[in-house]
Amino acid sequence: MKNLFMLDVDGTLVDSCQMDHECFSEAVYDVTGLTVPDDWGGYTNVTDAGIIEELIDSHELQREKIMLFREIKRVFTHKLADAIAQQGLKPLPGAVAFIDEMRYMPTVALAIATGGWEETARMKLKAAGFNIDGIVFSSCSDAMSRSEVMALAAFRAKQDYGVHFERRIYFGDGVWDKQATQSLNYEFVAVGDKVEHDVRVSNFTNPRAILGKLGIEESQRQYA
What we know:
Layout: E1 2-7, H1 17-32, H2 48-58, H3 65-87, H4 95-102, E2 108-113, H5 118-127, E3 136-138, H6 146-161, E4 165-172, H7 175-184, E5 187-191, E6 200-201, H8 207-213, H9 218-222
Parallel strand pairs: 1-2, 1-4, 2-3, 4-5, 5-6
Helix pairs in contact: 1-3, 3-5, 6-7
C-alpha cells in the first residue's frame, strides 16, 4: 500500500505566484483587452484554462474562443520565459530536497497536479531546480477544473504504480485547492498561511515532521 502525495506548483513548490499572476494578467490584457481580477477565488475553475474560459464566456467572445486560447497561452509562455530569464525563480524552502527524498520512500508515490498549463508549469519547476523526471503529471492542459486535474493525477499514478493508494493527500496553498480536495474526499495539507486548515506546513525543510503530521510512521525509520 502506498500513500499518494499530490502537489500543486505555484505557491506550493515554487515561489512563483506573483510572477505567474502578472504574466498571465498581462497576456490576457494584451490579447483581449480584458482585465483579470486580482481575486482569483471568484472564478468557478481556478486554473489557467478555467479563468480564460469564464472571461471569454462572460464577454461573449465564444466565436473566437479557440484563437484566443492559443494566443493567450503563447503570449503568456513568452512573457513567463522572459520574466524567469530576468528574475529567476526560487523553490519554497526545502521543496527540492523533499521531492528528491520522497522518491525513495517505499510507502509514498508522487504526482504533480497543477492548475497551470503543462508547458509553463514544467518551465517554472525546471527554473526552480526541480527534477520531476518520471513523476506523474497532470495540469489544465488535460482538464478544465482543478478537481478533474487532481483526479486524473490519481488515476495516472494508479496506472503507473499498479497499486491501490491507501491515502490521497494534496499539498496546496489556495482556498480552491482545499475545496477541490473536499469535493474528491482527498486529504489536504495547507502550505503557507493563506488557507485555514488543521494540517499546515510553512515549508518543506523538515520532511520528518511533515510525515509525522500525517501519521506516516515510516518517517521514524527513514530519518532516524
